[in-house]
């Protein structure tokens, strides 16, 4: 199973998504017998890479936010003392 194949949500995988959708429309019956499996595997790999990049970016962003919050707490604690 894969997420919805919307191009605007998966810009890194847009080319593979288009090929996969074309394969499904060109082979309406054969798709059930593995005609598009190779593209599906490529698509899954692309989604994994995309997710890893997003996860890394989110982690970096959360580290920056955590550092800002710790600095703010330290500043607040010093002002209260």
TrEMBL record:
Any one of the GO CC terms: mitochondrion
InterPro entries named in the record: Cyt_c_biogenesis_Cmc1-like (IPR013892)
Cross-referenced PROSITE patterns: CHCH
Record key words, sorted: Disulfide bond, Mitochondrion
Location in the cell: Mitochondrion
Predominant place of localization: mitochondrion
Record's keyword annotation contains Cell wall biogenesis/degradation: no
Keyword Disulfide bond: yes
Protein name per the record: COX assembly mitochondrial protein
Organism lineage: Eukaryota, Viridiplantae, Streptophyta, Embryophyta, Tracheophyta
